[in-house]
Amino acid sequence: MTAPLLQVDDLHVRFPISGGGLLGTGKRTLHAVNGLSFELAKGECLSIVGESGCGKSTTALSILGLQAPSEGMIRYRGQPLAGPGAPGRMQRAKAVQMVFQDPYASLNPRQSVRTSLAAPLRLHGVTATSEIEGRIEAMLKNVGLTPEQAARYPHEFSGGQRQRIGIARALILEPEIVLLDEPVSALDVSIRAQIINLLLDLQEKLGLSYLMISHDLSVVEHMSDRVLVMYFGEVVEEGGWREIFEAPAHPYTRRLIAAIPDPAAALDPAAKQDRFADLPQFAGRRFVSDGSTSPDVFTAPEGSELVEITPQHRVRFSVK
Amino acid sequence: MTAPLLDIRGLRLGVAINRSTHHPLLKGVSFQIMPGEAYGLVGESGSGKSVTSLAVMGLLKKPLAISGGEILFKGQNLLSLSKREMRRLRGNRIAMIFQEPMTALNPLSTVGRQIAEMFVLHQGKSWSEAEKLAVEALGNVRVPNPDRRAKNYPHQMSGGLRQRVMIAMALACNPDLLIADEPTTALDVTVQAEVLRLIKELCAARGTAVLFISHDLGVIASVCQRVGVMYSGCLVEENETRALFADPKHEYTRGLLGALPRLGSRSEHGRQRLVDIDSIIADRSKLTETRFIAPRGAEGSQP
Amino acid sequence: MRFGFNFWLGAGLTALVILAGILAPWIAPFDPVLDADLMSSELPPDATFWFGTDAQGRDVYTRILYGAQISLTVGIVSQVINSMIGITLGMTAGYWGGWWDDLVNGLTNVMLAIPSLIFALAVMAVLGPGLPSLLIALGLTNWSWTCRIARSSTLSLKSQGYVQAAQTLGYGDLRIMFTQILPNMMGPILVMATLGMGSAVLSEAALSFLGLGIQPPFPSWGSMLTDARQLIQLAPWVAIFPGLAIFLSVLGFNLLGDGLRDSLDPHMRTRKP
């Protein structure tokens, strides 16, 4: 049995919050991620879904090494990627890279495309100019840009083209895992399809593994093999895309799916309601079903566990 | 046949780059909103949907300037009104909610007082009376514990609550027209669904017409009865919502709808490549040459 | 990038000072120190002595041209020192945060609480008068605003996607600071430095006026004003022209700085359609 490509084991991230008060008396601890565990297999697209504050971005930062976990292990091919014994930035850079949400903020306005692609190569020991040029040219073609565009600066590109540059930068060091942080949500609707198609093509062509963070469930359904639904720091449901979208068990997952403004569903409200009517209901531990208040994020969650209801489909239950 | 509430005729506006050159943003846009109707304008960035709403509100700032057309509100041309007359209309007869409620609310004043101010300003109520009405208004937008929440400052509220406060302010004086410019884009999906339902139900109950602006076809579909699709400063297609989604006529609309990953489509058709809009549209520069504007009532019944 | 009227006026005045300083040995009609002639002292402006002569009979015009060298040297060198200190402290404080940030912040606040001229006076008192100590004194006392700007720019740039991307690509901290952050905050720093040159010229004049700066007989606008103090009623031109030179050069630097700020400020920039 070989080690999985990426393995996150019981990840906890907590932030100390100095909550006002003289002499820091109001100090509290924010539980951003609580006991998150998952594995990412080679060539798979796993999506983490949830709303703001659910801990999905913190999880991504931990995997990238930009946020130290409070507890738990992150392993890449069996080797620790964060925590004690973690490698330096250089080794991690070759394992995991990230595509950012905002194509306008994610490119340095003072660097040409060539500079922002060549600098990481040089840093990682590729010194021959011909090799650097060759790899930049090949990468630009991969993402649907022309080699001539390498001399240009970010402001000369449209949002979609910038996102292609962002993808090129993430792939230039040939990482095995690419984190996609809301990769299309900042783009115009007509551009989204092109970027989604490009990401799927590249995944197949280069054998990439994607870990996607998103709140856009229609994009998630289209791209993912497996889905994790997070709610305030915990996974409430996980399963293959078919289980999550066709037989969602946790009430929060259902609420998320029902909330999507889908043109077809909006025009035919009956269809949307009927879809989940005959499914069994499961209770969530920390889930406040009317959504009027949010759970207390300053205390550790009470005991609950993910229970497998069908193969590969697990839902959170309280242990009592 | 009732008269339209808002009748925009051949509206043209642009950016003055310097004295001689003028970059057009709206190239003759015309549409009508009936009293109580929810009308959606959908388009991508740069299509001109937001400047249309700013023009109606009379909030265009230099270098933006109107170069032609009329905006008739209840038969009165808004473009010929003085600043003073426009100010009296704004917030009272025409109200607006924005994408980011935090920037539209005063951080130094409680939300109750900000809503109350609308009653004092436009209806001449006393402060004590207005504050009671403000609590009532918060209850109407389904803010839990309205009397306690009225004493909150904007930063003490979540994004969804803030947007509810904005809606309460906008609807305080029972306006005839509510302009909503991407009101839910900054919100989480479940919160978005609640805010959309709120706008839809409140406006339907009060007979307020809505001009709803969004890039999201799904959002538009869930609120509006009639939709206009904008591209590059032109209204390229307009129809009843149901008809537009069922049978898009313009190639741009077809491209937009095809490019959208739709929930449930994967289980029916498997993972397909999404439609690349450029494969549908042969020449983007010719897109605005054709327009499909369906006549009102063509579909027969109102939804 | 478009520049307004203020920028060009400032640039013109600054260019005038720079040209005067550089070309002084060639265009000045006399020697600033050696051509002293008590017979022709305190002459009003005429065709030979354009700005008149001072108490030692030296040509005021010549001395103002040479004085420009001093003012420019002081302005530029002290601002280079200030910017280097301010950028280094501000950028590292903003990037690393923690105790280092607290320390730099405390230091900046202390510096801002001491009037910089008084602090420069104290430094000069320790180092003794003269140009090198003047440069050190002014270079050490005016970095606090640059430091604050560098720190706040770094804090906002740090959360930009491209800085995070550089971290994930394996860049070291110093490399990120110099390739990703510094180039993107040069605008406001440059504005700060230009505005600082104006105040450095003023401080130099003030310190020289107090006898701590450039020592006679070498000409600096400030020391020329000191000499003119007793003559202000008998021979006002001895005071007017150095005063005017200080006024115009400081105005020039300030207008240049303001003009730069206006054109670098993204809100003022007209966007391409």
> Which sequence of SSEs, written as H and E, runs from N to C of chain A?
EEEHEEHEHHHEHEHEEHHHHEE
Low-pLDDT regions of chain A: none
Strand content of chain A: 25-35%
Task: Let me know the largest β-sheet of chain A.
Answer: 8 strands, mixed
Strand order of the largest sheet of chain B: 6-7-8-3-9-10-11
Q: Treating each run of at least 4 consecutive H or I residues as one helix, how many helices of chain A? A: 11
Gross morphology of chain B: globular
The largest inter-chain interface, given as chain pair and residues per side, is: A-B, 39 and 42 residues
Helical percentage of chain B: 25-40%
- End-to-end span of chain B in angstroms? 17 Å
Average pLDDT over all residues of chain B? 87
Unreliable parts of chain B: 299-303
Which percent bin holds the helix content of chain A?
Answer: 25-40%
Mean pLDDT of chain A: 83
Number of beta strands of chain A:
12
Q: What's the helix-strand series of chain B?
A: EEEHEEHEHHHHHEHEHEEHHHHE
Q: Radius of gyration of chain B, rounded?
A: 20 Å
Please report the number of helical segments of chain B: 13
Percentage beta strand of chain B: 15-25%
How can the largest sheet of chain B be summarized?
Answer: 7 strands, mixed
Given helix and strand content, the structural type of chain B is alpha/beta
Sum up the structure in keywords:
heterotrimer, A: 320 residues, alpha/beta, eight-stranded mixed β-sheet, four-stranded antiparallel β-sheet, C: elongated
Question: Can you describe what's shown?
Answer:
The complex is a heterotrimer of chains A (320), B (303) and C (273). Chain A is 33% helix and 26% strand. The model of chain A has no long low-confidence stretch (mean pLDDT 83). In chain A, the strands form two sheets. An eight-stranded mixed sheet of chain A has the order 6-7-8-3-9-10-12-11, sandwiched between helices. By secondary structure, chain A is an alpha/beta fold. Chain B starts with 5 loop residues before the first strand and ends in a 10-residue tail after the last strand. In chain B, the strands form two sheets. In chain B, strands 6-7-8-3-9-10-11 form a seven-stranded mixed sheet, sandwiched between helices. Chain C has 273 residues and is mainly alpha-helical. In chain C, helix 2 packs antiparallel against helix 3 (98-113), helix 3 (98-113) packs antiparallel against helix 6 (144-158) and helix 6 (144-158) runs antiparallel to helix 8. Chains in contact: A-B, A-C, B-C. The A-B interface holds A 51-52, 159, 188-190, 192-194, 196-197, 200, 215, 217-219, 221-222, 241-242, 245-246, 255-267, 291-294 and B 44-45, 144, 158, 188-194, 196, 215-219, 221-222, 241-242, 245, 255-267, 271, 273-278.
